[in-house]
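I had to read the description of the data format several times before I understood it. Each protein is reduced to its one-letter sequence and a matching series of backbone shape codes. The format is easy to grasp once an entry is in front of the reader. For illustration, here is how one protein appears when written out as sequence plus structure tokens:
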Amino acid sequence: MPPLDVDATVLENRPLSRDYNVLTLSAGDVGAHTVAGQFVMVRPATMTDTLLRRPFSVFEVLRDAAGTATAISILNKRAGRTTQALYDARVGDRVATLGPLGRAYTPPSTGQEAWMVAGGVGLAPFWTLAMRLVAAGIPTTLIYGARSGAELFYLDFFERLGVRLVLTTEDGSRGEHGRVTLPLDRELAGRDPQSIMVYACGPEPMLEAVAHVATRHHQPCEVSVERTMGCGLGGCYSCVVKVQHGTGTPHYVRSCISGPVFDGAEIVWD
């Protein structure tokens, strides 16, 4: 179905740290049609000097006791004007919300485990994905890294869900000292080829490294790329990604339509 354009109300703003927050929006109709890995384009109504929206992975899909989707949330890190406005949003503020958009993650094949690899705000698509995987009875691991332990969020949620956690921090304050590719590479060693589906989201250098590790161990890998998007609908060509299918000619595709989820082995990592 086509994406929905919703004039959503801010229902809750949960600060997670001085830079991160989770913003809950009254966009239940969007949530009802969201598949893990898809995104929304949002713009706070307070930003009257621009018509452009910014892409965010759908983080949570909130439901009532009957299971009806009532709201969605986005995981935000303030880094510019739009993200600052979303960090400062108050209950009752309006946020133009367009979605769901883009290509979602592919479910694992029969007998595969699922390993989610998140770096920083790259945790965003994995709430919905973890819910889907666990509901399907698929053994699920989250390898999650950040600059410090203070920037590792929602650990209790994933633990309660039964997701195995592997944590890393760049400063060594929690989990393993280093980056997510270290435990990923170590734990994939010796595993049966094609037995694990790897899903990754985070900074592009991390995605490239994760894709290379997965390929080296003969495990399939899907990555969710971050690109600047002007429209989210494929009209502005601001979000192109270079890909190559097999031995075909490398070419550019729009990540808002062909992605944001791609086969990590098909991206041409320049």
